[in-house]
């Protein structure tokens, strides 16, 4: 009996092409209070879907997404920590070895922005080199707030981001605002790539501030 054979060397060619590809892995941690939209953002970025039903994260969620630039496959591994204080002992799992940490808050709940201070202090204890991001969620609801409230939260978010030397991004997962861009900026910062995304700095707009403060 003869064994099936592939046309001259096809198999080995494919292997050579594969070997020419580089692959790297990028861990991104997501941290912040409960109910601010961390899990939603991760699922939206990885699977492209948004579900209004709230499922509380128990402990830690983890998802992967591969993006390719030229001949490099980049695997984002995204770690999302349950916001309840009892999960704080899992903070090292999310923070350790992360290349970037998204410190997240709900743009419609100021208390969640105040919490960022403590989240930042604790996460920095485990990881001093991760590239920090301050990410405000639910921008779709934020625009319905009174103008003074919008201004105050924006001002404080800018102040925090400056102090953290963090990029500042306002996003909406439900309305697909700035979701992809967060991870584009992570990528550009991690690999020192030039990015041509225009910044958005005006109050009332979905902020995108990622160059120098
Ligand atoms: N309007 C609006 N609701 C959102 C958005 N992102 C998340 N939510 C809702 O906020 C709630 C909490 O979301 P979840 O991702 O579970 O928050 P987590 O506890 O931080 O992981 C859910 O009911 C989501 O549907 C958003 O961009 N806009
Ligand atoms: Mg969650």
UniProtKB/TrEMBL annotation:
<dbReference type="GO" id="GO:0035556">
    <property type="term" value="P:intracellular signal transduction"/>
</dbReference>
<dbReference type="GO" id="GO:0005816">
    <property type="term" value="C:spindle pole body"/>
</dbReference>
<dbReference type="InterPro" id="IPR001806">
    <property type="entry name" value="Small_GTPase"/>
</dbReference>
<dbReference type="GO" id="GO:0090068">
    <property type="term" value="P:positive regulation of cell cycle process"/>
</dbReference>
<keyword id="KW-0342">GTP-binding</keyword>
<dbReference type="GO" id="GO:0003924">
    <property type="term" value="F:GTPase activity"/>
</dbReference>
<dbReference type="Pfam" id="PF00071">
    <property type="entry name" value="Ras"/>
</dbReference>
<keyword id="KW-0131">Cell cycle</keyword>
<dbReference type="InterPro" id="IPR027417">
    <property type="entry name" value="P-loop_NTPase"/>
</dbReference>
<dbReference type="GO" id="GO:0051301">
    <property type="term" value="P:cell division"/>
</dbReference>
<keyword id="KW-0547">Nucleotide-binding</keyword>
<protein>
    <recommendedName>
        <fullName>Septum-promoting GTP-binding protein 1</fullName>
    </recommendedName>
</protein>
<keyword id="KW-0132">Cell division</keyword>
<dbReference type="InterPro" id="IPR017231">
    <property type="entry name" value="Small_GTPase_Tem1/Spg1"/>
</dbReference>
<dbReference type="GO" id="GO:0005525">
    <property type="term" value="F:GTP binding"/>
</dbReference>
<keyword id="KW-0498">Mitosis</keyword>
<dbReference type="InterPro" id="IPR005225">
    <property type="entry name" value="Small_GTP-bd"/>
</dbReference>
């Amino acid at each position: 009996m003869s064994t099936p054979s592939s046309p001259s060397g096809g198999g080995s060619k494919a292997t050579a092409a594969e070997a020419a590809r580089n692959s790297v892995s990028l861990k991104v941690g997501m941290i912040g209070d409960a109910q601010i939209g961390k899990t939603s953002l991760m699922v939206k970025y990885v699977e492209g879907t948004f579900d209004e039903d709230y499922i509380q994260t128990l402990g830690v969620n983890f998802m992967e997404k591969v993006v390719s630039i030229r001949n490099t496959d980049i695997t984002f591994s995204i770690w999302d920590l349950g916001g309840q204080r009892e999960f704080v002992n899992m903070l090292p799992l999310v923070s350790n070895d992360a290349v970037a940490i998204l410190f997240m808050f709900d743009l419609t709940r100021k208390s969640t922005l105040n919490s960022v201070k403590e989240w930042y202090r604790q996460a920095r204890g485990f990881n001093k080199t991760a590239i920090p991001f301050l990410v405000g969620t639910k921008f779709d609801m934020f625009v319905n707030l009174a103008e003074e409230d919008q201004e105050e939260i924006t001002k404080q978010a800018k102040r925090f981001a400056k102090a953290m030397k963090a990029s500042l991004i306002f996003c909406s997962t439900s309305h697909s605002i700035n979701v992809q861009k967060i991870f584009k900026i992570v990528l550009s910062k991690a690999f020192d790539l030039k990015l041509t995304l225009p910044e958005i700095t005006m109050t009332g707009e979905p902020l995108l501030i990622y160059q120098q403060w």
